[in-house]
Structures are given as structure tokens and as C-alpha cells.
């Protein structure tokens, strides 16, 4: 006989399965006649619904930052030795392995990401767009925003290309909510404002970051007329590290901030789902660590995710029916809880011999058979970096590029010392 507890155990895996797997799983459940009443069944299904909602939520954030990269397929980015920083973020945080752009060329993807529809596939488009868009919803929700565009000629500039600035990579500059408002137009700023806003704790709730053509993997690095694709990617990766590592080390951002790095479209030869297979990396304290999503997502899902994180309950165009990227967020028990199972110090992350982005997430725990653990400390290159008077550590350390020797040490109430050491590389 299938009891209510057994039914719940049978149904619970459905909270995270795909439609096809859910149907398959349901077909395997066998219920004996008279095992329980309809009332029991409805109760179990209601528990399932509550569990599904609780397990699939985009957390609220005070700061969402998205950086757009250009014209590279997933396979040319993930695992590429030319982009060690981005790949270290992808390995430490969330990577959407089935993320697809919507169209070719660029502009339609930028508009899908900010207006929920393609609107145009002409990169030379110059008209004002009156369609519903992310700015309209942010303003309705009372949220602040800025577009930080590298090489933008001036604050409030909504004109055409001034190389290496390209307007169709700055979609917020097309919306009537922006260009027709003397106030909102001032939120179109050069990227040089980003570091100052971060340092002065004036970062808006939504930041749309636009690297210029030398730094978005589209064109050759500054000063080079010809280059390899590896050099384009390396320049983009270096720019990311230089400009986004300080963001990830910022105490306010570390509270609940979300950084998204996504490519607008794949190589033009890849038209799968319209714009091809691209890399999308999600970083933040509430992102599942080391997570690999296998759910199919496109730019409208990213738009819905951003607005949801910022507290909006309304969404433009296709984002209204798109699936939010909820699975990228939340606790992952296998990676968020570090337990010492033997006497001594157990370091759960980072793993020795690995390459990890700064700030480095350190999780460790200590155990003593003699007495309780009274303190733990982290040393990096023989310098104390962190101290806690508990038996576990879960913190992030800002480390410079290069090789580092880390020691995690613990003391118990008798004065006994325990330690564990490892070497890591920061790109």
C-alpha cells in the first residue's frame, strides 16, 4: 500500500524534473486501490506545489549587473584557455549550458534581452522604440538604472556609432522612456563612471555594461589591426577581470548582488534556436556554486530573471511568459555545507591545484576528539587573512593574480593545533 509519506517521496523528485522526465516519473508511480482517499492525494499534490515554488525562486537583489560579450559560440568560450577568468567564474558559480541567442545579427538579441522581442534585425536601426521595455518596468517598480557604455562620447549621448562605441550594443539608448526624458537620458553614461559609482556606493540597482569593440571579443584589442580570435577573447577576458573583480569584492555587492556575463549571439553559422548556442554565466552569493543548468533558456528568460530579482512583477513582451532562470539560485547542499568528518581541518573549497577567480570562496570545517574547536584562521602566503571563533569557515577573500599558498588552521580548547594547506592559482 502506498502511504501518504511514500506518495510524497515519489512525487518530490518532480519538483526539479523536465516535462518529459516528470511524465515518465509519474507513469512509474503505482498506487494500490483504496490506499488513501482523494483528500490525501490533494494534500500530497499541494505539498508538491509548495515545494516546487520554494525550490524555484529567483532571490531579490539590490544590484544586478549584466555584461554583454560578442559573437562567440559556447564551445569557443567555455573551456577556452584564452578566457581563464570567465571560465573560473563559470566553474565556481552558475553556468547555463543550454542557453541560446534568439537571432542574427546583434541588435535583435540586445532588444530581446531588454524589450522581450527582436523588433529589428538591422544593426543600422536608428529610430526611437516606443515598445514596452525593461526601463519602463524598472521605473514602475521604483528602481534605479544606468547603462555604462565604454567609449560613449558623453553623458546622455543617444546618437550613432562613434567607434569603438557601437550604438546597437547599447539598447537602452533607443527606448522612448529614455531618449524622450531629460532625466532618464542622464542614465546613459560612459563606462568610466562605473568604478566611481562602485567606490562611492552609488551603483544603481540595474547596471547594463557595454564594453567597446576592442574589449567585447568582437574586434582586435586596442592598437592591433589584425589579430587571432584567441587574442580577441583574451582581451575581453582581461577587461572582465580588471573591471568586474572589484565589483565581486565589494562588500555591498557581496550581500545579494548578481553579475551576469552573456554573449549576444553565437557565430553566424550557428542558427540553433535562432541565434545559436552561447555562454551565460551567473555570479553571486545566492547563485548555486558550481552549478550547471541543463534547462533551455534564451534572452527573454534572462530579462524575466533580471526583473524578478529586482522586484518587478510585470514583464515586457515574451518575458511575460518566459521561464525565469530560477534553478541557478538557491542552496546546493553538496557545496554549501562543509563538515569535518575526521579529526583535523577539512577544506571543502577551493580544491588544491585549481584555478579560481578572486574573490576566492573558502569553506572549511574543523573537528577535534579532544575538545571543542575554539578558533580557525586562514593564512595566504604566510599572512593572516581571516579569523573566526567558530568551528567552520565560509568566506570570500580578494586575492591578487598569481599562485598562492593557503593554510587553514584550527585550535581546540586544549591548545591543540590542526591545519590543512593547498596551492591555488588566481587568473
What does the model show?
This protein has 427 residues and is of the alpha/beta class. It has three domains: 4-55, no CATH class; 64-328, Alkaline Phosphatase, subunit A; 337-426, Immunoglobulin-like, CATH 2.60.40.10. The chain is 28% helix and 23% strand. The chain has an eight-stranded mixed sheet with strand order 4-3-5-1-6-7-2-8, sandwiched between helices. α6 runs parallel beside α12. The longest helix is centred in the middle third of the chain and has 21 residues, at 229-249. It is elongated, with a radius of gyration of 24 Å. The termini are far apart. Mean pLDDT is 88; it is low at 1-8, 10-27, 31-36 and 40-55.
Write the layout of secondary structure elements.
Elements: H1 4-11, H2 19-28, H3 38-55, E1 64-69, H4 74-77, H5 84-92, E2 94-100, H6 106-115, H7 134-140, E3 145-149, H8 176-179, E4 188-190, H9 192-199, E5 206-210, H10 229-249, H11 251-256, E6 258-263, E7 277-284, E8 291-293, H12 299-309, H13 333-336, E9 344-349, E10 360-367, E11 373-380, E12 383-388, E13 392-397, E14 402-412, E15 417-426
Parallel strand pairs: 1-5, 1-6, 2-8, 3-4, 3-5
Antiparallel strand pairs: 2-7, 6-7, 9-10, 10-13, 11-12, 11-14, 14-15
Amino acid at each position: 500500500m502506498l502511504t501518504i509519506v511514500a506518495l510524497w517521496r515519489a512525487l518530490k523528485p518532480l519538483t526539479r524534473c523536465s516535462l518529459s522526465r516528470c511524465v515518465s516519473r509519474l507513469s512509474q508511480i503505482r498506487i494500490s486501490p483504496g490506499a488513501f482517499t482523494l483528500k490525501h492525494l490533494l494534500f500530497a499534490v499541494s505539498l508538491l506545489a509548495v515545494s516546487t515554488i520554494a525550490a524555484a525562486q529567483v532571490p531579490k537583489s539590490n544590484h544586478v549587473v549584466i555584461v554583454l560579450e560578442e559573437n562567440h559560440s559556447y564551445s569557443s568560450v567555455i573551456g577556452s584557455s584564452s578566457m581563464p577568468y570567465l571560465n573560473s567564474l563559470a566553474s565556481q558559480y552558475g553556468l547555463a549550458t543550454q542557453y541560446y541567442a534568439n537571432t542574427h545579427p546583434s541588435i535583435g538579441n540586445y532588444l530581446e534581452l531588454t524589450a522581450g522581442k527582436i523588433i529589428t534585425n538591422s544593426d543600422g536601426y536608428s529610430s526611437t522604440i516606443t515598445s514596452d521595455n525593461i526601463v519602463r518596468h524598472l521605473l514602475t517598480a521604483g528602481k534605479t538604472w544606468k547603462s555604462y557604455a565604454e567609449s560613449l562620447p558623453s553623458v546622455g549621448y543617444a546618437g550613432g556609432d562613434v567607434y569603438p562605441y557601437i550604438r546597437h550594443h547599447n539598447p537602452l539608448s533607443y527606448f522612448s522612456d529614455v531618449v524622450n526624458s531629460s532625466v532618464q537620458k542622464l542614465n546613459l553614461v560612459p563606462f568610466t563612471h562605473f568604478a566611481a559609482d562602485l567606490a562611492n556606493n552609488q551603483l544603481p540597482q540595474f547596471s547594463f555594461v557595454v564594453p567597446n569593440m576592442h574589449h567585447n571579443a568582437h574586434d582586435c584589442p586596442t592598437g592591433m589591426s589584425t589579430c587571432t580570435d584567441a587574442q580577441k577573447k583574451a582581451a575581453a577576458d582581461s577587461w572582465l577581470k580588471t573591471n568586474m573583480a572589484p565589483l565581486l569584492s565589494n562588500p555591498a555587492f557581496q550581500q545579494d548582488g548578481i553579475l551576469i556575463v552573456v554573449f549576444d549571439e553565437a557565430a553566424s553559422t550557428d542558427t540553433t534556436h535562432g541565434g545559436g548556442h552561447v555562454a551565460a554565466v551567473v555570479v553571486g552569493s545566492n547563485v548555486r556554486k558550481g552549478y550547471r543548468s541543463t534547462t533551455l533558456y534564451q534572452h527573454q528568460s534572462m530579462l524575466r530573471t533580471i526583473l524578478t530579482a529586482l522586484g518587478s512583477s510585470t514583464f515586457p513582451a515574451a518575458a511575460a511568459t518566459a521561464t525565469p532562470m530560477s534553478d541557478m539560485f538557491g542552496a546546493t547542499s553538496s557545496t554549501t555545507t562543509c563538515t569535518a568528518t575526521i579529526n583535523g581541518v577539512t577544506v571543502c573549497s577551493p580544491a588544491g591545484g585549481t584555478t579560481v577567480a578572486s574573490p576566492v570562496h573558502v569553506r572549511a570545517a574543523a573537528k577535534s576528539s579532544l575538545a571543542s574547536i575554539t578558533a580557525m584562521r586562514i593564512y595566504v602566503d604566510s599572512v593572516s587573512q581571516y579569523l573566526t571563533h567558530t568551528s567552520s569557515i565560509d568566506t570570500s577573500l580578494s586575492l591578487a593574480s598569481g599562485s598562492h599558498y593557503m593554510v587553514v588552521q584550527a585550535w581546540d580548547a586544549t591548545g591543540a593545533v590542526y591545519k590543512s594547506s593547498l596551492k591555488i592559482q588566481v587568473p
